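Memo to structure team: turn this sequence into structure tokens by end of day. - J.P.
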Amino acid sequence: MSRPADPAPRRRRWPLFLPAALVVVLALAWSALWFYAADRAKAEITTWRERESAAGRVQDCTSQSVGGYPFSIEVRCDGGTLELKGMPGLRLQMPSVLAAVQVYDPKLVIAEFTGPLDISEPGRPPGYTVNWTLGQASVRGQPFGLERVSLVLEAPSVRNPASAGNDTLFRAQHLELHGRPAAGSTRNDLLIETALRLTAAVADKLHPLAAKPIDADVDTVLRGGVDLTPKPWPVRLREWQARGGELEIVKARVQQEEVIAVGAGNLKLTPRGGLDGNLQVTVVGIEKVLKMFDIERIMSEGQIGATINALDRLIPGLGGIARQNTPGLVAALGQRTTLEGKPAVAFPVRFADGTIFLGPFQVGQVEPLF
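Reply from structure team:
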């Protein structure tokens, strides 16, 4: 008689549910972590505002919310204001700011803000209104150990609402500003690298020379640190000068139509607030620059004017020929060279306690800054 076959072993089904259970556990743990981080963010914002307020920088929102689940912490501030205490005070107000921090990269803060930004003295109507089509900023690092700060504005503009025509003082297609501590910088000796990019900038209300679009690319190193304590600009500049403050222009390139200028050098302030320093400048289209700045007239009235007038006394009419001899002025100004494959002239620009020298000629004066 044959034995009955052994029954088939029952399959264990719990391993089938193990991956799903692990996903649920991880989701619950991640959710708990996110809500903990969100609560910490609220507490940190409150502490930060109290600390800023004690330093004279009062920040507030009409309404504030925290979201961004599951991968980021997003803080939205509607009706945001920043009031800087000082003499005089300053108040900034904009409709909305959205700041986001990725949970897996908490050192990077990315913000997007909606214009316009109204700038005014407390209790007074806006003195300036800044607007843009897209505004973004990013900060990397901890509050007391910033590694990089960036600001990008698309189609920025600055208006003066107090003027009769609500005049646009400045506009551009694109603006970028980046800053970071330079190599060798310490807490007691802060060096800041900055990079400014401007595309198609126009400021005809500020100066006729800026009536046509200008592209600019400027890299600098600021020595002497930055004091964010609210105070009047003359006081701030006087303290910066006392700390040995200096602005090194590592490289600057400015272009307006066919005119191209590049330069580098150092600028600082004297004890009385006069601008002091030297720049080495190379220009393509120097003849147009001379006409824009009316350098020929300035030179004829300044140091070179004495020589030209002497020529007139020797031979009547000879001075007029010299006045119209732009190539001669160019030759006296600097040396012929090339820039970006085009004929150019290289010459020094010197500031001596506010007095401006273009090459060997004194051409103007800058009032003391404090």
